[in-house]
Amino acid sequence: MSEIRFAKKGEIARQKEIWKLCFGDSDQYIDFYYANRYKEDETLLLLQEGEIVSMLTILPIRVNTSTGQGLNSTMLYAIATHPKHQHRGYASQLIESACCHLNQKNNVFSVLVPAGKKLFDYYRHQGFQDGFFIHEISFDWKRLELLPIVENNCTIKSISPQEYNMRRENQLSGKFYVSYTAEDIDYQRKLSQQSGADIYGIEIEGVQGCAVIELLDQGKVFIKELLIADHLLSTAVRYIARLLPSRKYILRTPSFLGRQLEGSIRPFGMIRANQGIPPEITPEVFGYLGLAFD
């Protein structure tokens, strides 16, 4: 007998088992998520004969249009089915159930970030389309040293989730993008701090920006999000490198930033209409998601 419902107390151990088997994350990271972000009423489960076999998390977000309209939407996160029960359509059932539930709640869009390239085709079959793109650039130290510094007066400091959100909204105003709750920005701050970095405010000659940074294994600095005026982007990267010296840097920006830095633009997130209103995604209006807690 199949059942789809929200999580209850006492079910975390089975969820952690499925997460570990499907995503391969460390126990430390999985424990961190369940200690800092997990909510039973945001975790949808599919059970077979009383056993949890598939799960997904519903994170509230807002999708903002280029005209300034903010639409209540949801990110479907950590979609996973126990390996012994895969290829039976359970994840598809969960997604359909979630989207039906969200439609009843007047939730306009469902958004997700596939865990790998191969999953983009799978989610297209579930009614999702490419909606959010990132510009990704890798630097070694030698290449980074060649980036021009436009202005010398730059400050970088840790800021609160509320301040970060305010700066982020200002930078993305007029674009098609995803907004997050202060709670989710705080979760990202904890992730960054756990790695040895933080969320930062940047100011260059009075122009404000913001960045999310994590320290990765093997001496890599991951600039997960960098938002500032385009002509100041290279200056910001150089000053980040002074704050966090490393051998290699990975930078993610919206697709409309950093074209002068080369790199590649690739699909990152997908979107599906819950209420029959398809989003208008064109090469000129690539959406920006940014933080996927990946």
Largest sheet: 13 strands, mixed
Q: What is the tally of helical segments? A: 8
How much helix, percentage-wise, in residues? 25-40%
Total number of beta strands? 13
Quote the average pLDDT: 93
In CATH, the architecture of the largest domain is 3-Layer(aba) Sandwich
Query: Would you state the CATH class of the largest domain?
Result: Alpha Beta
Distance between the termini: 33 Å
What does this structure look like?
The protein has 294 residues and is of the alpha+beta class. The protein has two domains: 2-112, Aminopeptidase (3-Layer(aba) Sandwich), CATH 3.40.630; 134-265, 3-Layer(aba) Sandwich (Aminopeptidase), CATH 3.40.630. Helix content is 29%, strand content 35%. The chain contains eight helices and 13 strands. It has helices at residues 12-23, 27-36, 90-104, 119-124, 141-145, 161-172, 182-195, 233-243, and strands spanning 2-6, 43-48, 51-64, 70-81, 109-112, 129-140, 154-158, 177-179, 199-204, 207-216, 220-227, 248-254, 264-273. Strands 1, 2, 3, 4, 5, 6, 7, 8, 9, 10, 11, 12 and 13 form a 13-stranded mixed beta sheet that branches. A hairpin with a 3-residue loop joins strand 10 (207-216) and strand 11 (220-227). The protein is globular and about 65 Å long. The two termini are 33 Å apart. The relative contact order is 0.16.
